[in-house]
Design goal:
The structure holds two protein chains of two kinds.
Chain A (H helix, E strand, L loop, with lengths): L1 E3 L2 E3 L2 H12 L5 H8 L3 H13 L20 E9 L4 H9 L4 E8 L3 E9 L2 H12 L5 E8 L14
Antiparallel strand pairs in A: 1-2, 3-5, 3-6, 4-5
Helix pairs in contact in A: 2-3
Chain B lengths: L4 H5 L8 E6 L2 E7 L2 H10 L2 H10 L1 H10 L2 H12 L4 H20 L7
Antiparallel strand pairs in B: 1-2
Helix pairs in contact in B: 2-6, 3-6, 4-5, 5-6
Classes of the chains: A alpha+beta, B mainly alpha.
Chain lengths: 159, 112
């Protein structure tokens, strides 16, 4: 990894380390070193620098809630907004525990998208009716409840 | 204890308003913050929305718990029990709310 002013530049080894860590963050420095044919001290050094510079933000466990006995539904919500209020609406959404992701997109009009979890449909509806619909600038809301997941990638490929 | 007409007829805060949905999570963009506004929206909203809320008991809950009008809530409960749908529901609901509004405002009742 090279540091250029405020920015950093990763080399091929850094990217390969990141790929391995995204697949399994419990790998030891030695295990990574063995896979990439480099010394564990090199791996340690690279990871340390990437953590310091915020390239590696955190390590976390991905929980299979269904196996843990927790029933919940996931919904994709599209919120049509007054363009002047879109930013505020998106910011407000980020503060709710039920909201996993927030983004904005533009097709025919500016919309805010949110991925939301809830225990059941009744609670999902209450959340949308009581916490999202009243936000200033919300024009309409369309909600799709996910019925089946065909792919859910937790690591990001480096294209 | 009886709730005063002025309390029932007041405008409520944005967070307490009635938000019209057509199904779970699908908000029409229409809301009502008072009984007057609610009456107006009955004429305008998609009929699916009226059916959705009537059979979830949402109208009764909002009118009794937020506006404090147990009488109108009871009238709407009766309408739900009659299983009215479509434009007949819109017309009947409009009639019930407008009649109650006239009562509350002290105007003569609409004839049945």
């Amino acid at each position: 990894m090279k540091i250029k002013g405020q920015g950093v530049s990763l080399d091929a080894l850094d990217w390969r380390i990141l790929q391995l860590l995204q697949e399994n963050s419990k790998l030891t420095f030695t295990e990574i070193g063995n896979k990439l044919d480099v010394a564990h001290s090199t791996v340690y050094d690279r990871i340390q620098k990437m953590e310091e510079h915020g390239i590696i933000k955190k390590y976390r466990a991905i929980v299979d809630l269904e196996k843990a006995g927790i029933q919940q539904i996931t919904a994709l919500i599209t919120i049509h907004t007054d363009p002047k209020e879109s930013e505020n609406i998106a910011q407000r959404l980020t503060g709710f525990l039920e909201v996993l992701e927030v983004s904005s997109s533009f097709s025919e009009e500016l919309v805010v998208n949110a991925k939301v979890i809830s225990q059941d449909q009744a609670k999902l509806h209450s959340f949308i009716a009581q916490s999202i619909a009243p936000l200033p600038g919300v024009l309409r809301i369309r909600t799709s409840i996910i019925t089946k997941k065909y792919k859910e990638e937790t690591s990001q490929p480096f294209l | 204890m009886a709730v005063s007409s002025s309390r029932i007829l007041r405008s409520v805060l944005r967070e307490e308003a009635f938000y019209f949905f057509t199904s779970i999570g699908n908000y029409t963009g229409q809301s009502a913050a008072s009984l007057d506004e609610f009456l107006q929206k009955i004429k305008e909203v998609n009929i699916k929305s009226l059916e959705f809320h009537l059979y979830r008991e949402d109208f009764e809950k909002w009118i009794s718990q937020t506006l404090g009008d147990a009488k109108l809530a009871e009238d709407i409960k009766g309408l739900r029990n009659m299983k009215v749908v479509g434009n007949a529901l819109r017309d009947r609901l409009y009639f019930l709310v407008s009649r109650r509004l006239k009562d509350l405002k002290g105007a003569p009742q609409a004839s049945r």
